[in-house]
Amino acid sequence: MTLSSQIRQQLVTQFGASSDDSVCLSSGLRLLAKWRSVLIQNTLLQKEGTVVRQGPLAGLDFLPQSAEGCHIAKLLGCYEQPLQPAIEAAIAVGYPTILNIGCAEGYYAVGLARRLANTHIYAHDTNPAAQTICRQLAEKNAVTQQVSVGGLFSGQEFAAYAGSPVLVLCDIEGAERELLNPHDYPALKEMDIIVESHECLISGVTQLLIDRFQHSHAVTLIQDSGQRSLDLTLCTAADVEEGIHRRANSRKSGAGKEKPPPNGRGFNQNT
């Protein structure tokens, strides 16, 4: 079943199951936005390819789909854009070791390896499929010697990296509450950290992390308003609309299938 058919089926089901017009319409708009986003994504991939266009990771030869996060934003180079100054600052430091905990498909792990020829990145993810894709992405970008991929990272492992400059890049869907604890894992006090705090999953986790590290780190809280800016020339809006129209018509005729989406010390915290 194509994504268009899935969206249509879900719309019919939702509109028939709920008597609340506002809920139906809001949900319907989200589904239609998802459908249009995939069509735009496929048009951009066809016309622009998989190379990241701007930002700290520009030049990374990425993937046709992402394991998580907005794929188009990653290709355009505006993914998590408020973090980009912190990422550039980290690149300027030139850490010999980066611990990328929650690496997903390796967007940051491999992208940073390309920028930092003398840095070794230890990329960890609990998803075996993500680990495989991360290894493949490292191979695609010729940085396999710099990127080591592993599974679950335990707090006891921080001690093995103590004694030299280390950057911890952490995005683990709420598990930061347990892992980033300098009382239990003192080596963290000497490491620079960029972490996404998942306030939406664990209320109060942002302030908890600030309190834990305020005596050992200079804490910067980075808010994401959702606004993005681009400084590049892509295919025109007309190209995108033409691609959407062509793909939509091909669905009506039964030709082709659109791809569904998969699913002192510095302390920078993104919320």
Summarize the structure.
The chain has helices at 3-17, 21-48, 71-76, 84-93, 107-115, 128-140, 176-179, 205-213, 237-253, and strands at 97-101, 120-124, 147-150, 166-170, 192-196, 217-222, 265-270. The chain has 271 residues and is α/β, with parallel strands linked by helices. Strand 2, helix 6 (128-140) and strand 3 form a beta-alpha-beta unit.
Low-confidence stretches: 252-264
Give the overall shape, derived from the CA principal axes: globular
Radius of gyration: 21 Å
Number of helices: 9
Mean pLDDT over the full residue set: 86
Helix content: 40-55%
- Read across the widest sheet, the strand sequence of neighbours is 3-2-1-4-5-7-6
Helix-strand category: alpha/beta
| Largest sheet data | 7 strands, parallel
Q: SSE order in H/E notation?
A: HHHHEHEHEEHEHEHE
Reported by name, the CATH topology is: Rossmann fold
Which descriptors apply to this entry?
single chain, 271 residues, alpha/beta, Rossmann fold, seven-stranded parallel beta sheet, 9 helices
Please describe what this structure looks like.
- 41% of the residues lie in helices and 13% in strands.
- The chain contains nine helices and seven strands.
- It has helices spanning 3-17, 21-48, 71-76, 84-93, 107-115, 128-140, 176-179, 205-213, 237-253; strands at residues 97-101, 120-124, 147-150, 166-170, 192-196, 217-222, 265-270.
- α1 runs antiparallel to α2 and α2 (21-48) crosses α9.
- The protein is globular and about 60 Å long.
